[in-house]
Amino acid sequence: MIKRLAKCIRQYAKHAIATPLFMVGEVAMEVMIPMLMATLIDRGIEAGNMRYIWMTGGLLLAAAFISLYFGVMGGRMAATAGSGFARNLRHDMYYNIQNFSFSNIDKYSTSSIITRLTTDVTNVQNSFQMIIRMAVRSPMTLIFSTVMALSIDAKMSLIFLACLPVLVGGLYLIMTRTHPIFRRVFKTYDKLNSVVQENLRGVRVVKSFVRGDYEVDKFNGISQSIYDDFTKAEKNLALNSPLMMGCIYVCTLLISWLGAKMIIASGNNPDIGMTTGQLMSLITYVIQILSSLMMVSMIFVMLTMSRASAQRIVEILDEKTDIESPENAVQTVKDGSIDFEDVRFSYALRSEKDCLSDIDLHIPSGATVGILGGTGSGKSTLVQLIPRLYDPTFGSVKVGGVDTRDYDLVALRDSVAMVLQKNELFSGTIKDNLRWGNENATDEELIEACRLAQADTFIQDFPDGYDTWIEQGGTNVSGGQKQRLCIARALLKKPRILILDDSTSAVDTRTDALIREGFRSYIPETTKIIIAQRVASVQDADMIVVLDNGKIADCGTHDELLARCEIYREVYESQTKGGEADE
């Protein structure tokens, strides 16, 4: 895990390396100061030597300023390295997410991915900054101060060793009790983000059903859960500081008491006892030793908090897409013909029931195919296999006579345009949204595609026309307008295969008929697959496929299905009056 995260430091490695070096310099100066103070007291103040006082005072000021400089530079370097490290982490995670297949995305919820990109990265960033600063500074302070303390009085300086078992034992208990809590907290964060996202997306439904209080209660319940867990964890972590400070106070009292007795017994003779300056420096060094131990314990606490976050980040970084372009991939889609050969598919590998089974179907290039079926019959699942959003569990799907698994993904998906059930528009102008289909499309091509999708009329009615601003999600246009813009965007790709997944459900039957008539006239060579709930939307198709429980119940023209397919006939009769389609 550490090795994987370390790869994200990259161009900030020099800042990460420079920080510990500055920390070593800062510690060296800080450790010199108590020794200079001891000599200042013993040889200057008590001896009344003003020359020595001025000289040593100058050295103290120099050491203090040098220590300050190293500390400031170390802080700046650590901040730069930490921010850059977090930037690279988010970049690598986001870049890898873009390569995820639908099955990879299904594995992680949107709220979980957001939490990992924000809260988890921040936790790891803070830990990284602490590691390159305090994880170097504290051990070095511990080592240098211990050496200096031993040089003054070996027996007295070993007093702090009596506190080590207490400190180590307490820290171990704190870490083992808090780590599981933090793992639980971060999972609860995922639920919190999910609730907020769901509420914001469905705010119109929430308000129309007057369910605001219910959503508030749901949010408060999850927030309370996070509060309770964090409170429990922080109560455990709060024990660390009094434990450490208690040890510092006990050691200071013991050294002061024993040291004072030694000074009195020796008559302030350094040859047989201890001087006042040595006692002061020894107390300072012991405090530095125990303070550095306290900082080491805080580092472990921070690592405990960030360990769960680091594991969640590495999960995203190491996740491999299960759909990739093969070596020597086919780069060109010859035509729009589609073949399903004994296809079975299941979203879960160990599912007892397949979503699709026994699918054998041939669609000629340029044909118009309608797909009908009840909710959950597998209509959307079937067409998602064509651009290889998923791979079939068994069998093969061929486009242009070539298995989709043999194509370069970009080449295949550039040849297939899909307008899904959940239409998505992005913040920007209408032109910006349309050019998602073809970034190099001219204004004339935009207008032609919109006329074909029956969108040009309402666009021209806007004051700014094609420069009208679309809010995120297309909230400032109607459902029917959004669908027609998405159809126009798909047409700009000039695909060999056009898939409309119930994408005219929000438009009236007349507009729907005009769109289908435009398809026949302007893109006759494009294979058109239309998933619809209305028989009127597909009855003129060259072939209509009826799905039932993931299987093809029947396949044929409108008249053929009326004569022999009971499912199709029932749907038709339920949507007609007096035997005539209600158009």
Task: Give structural notes.
With 583 residues, the chain is an alpha/beta fold. The protein folds into three domains: 2-318, ABC transporter transmembrane region fold, CATH 1.20.1560.10; 330-415 and 499-508 and 527-583, P-loop containing nucleotide triphosphate hydrolases (Rossmann fold, 3-Layer(aba) Sandwich), CATH 3.40.50.300; 423-494, 3-Layer(aba) Sandwich (Rossmann fold). Helix content is 61%, strand content 11%. It is built from 20 helices and 14 strands. A six-stranded mixed β-sheet has the order 6-9-10-3-11-12. A four-stranded antiparallel β-sheet has the order 2-1-4-5, with no helix packed on it. It is elongated. The model has no long low-confidence stretch (mean pLDDT 85).
Low-confidence stretches: none
Strand content: 5-15%
Q: Which structural class fits the helix and strand makeup?
A: alpha/beta
CATH class of the largest domain equals Mainly Alpha
Instruction: Give the total of beta strands.
Output: 14
CATH topology of the largest domain: ABC transporter transmembrane region fold
Strands of the widest sheet, in order across it, are 6-9-10-3-11-12
What is the radius of gyration? 36 Å
Total individual domains: 3
Roughly what is the average pLDDT, rounded to an integer? 85
Helix content: 55-70%
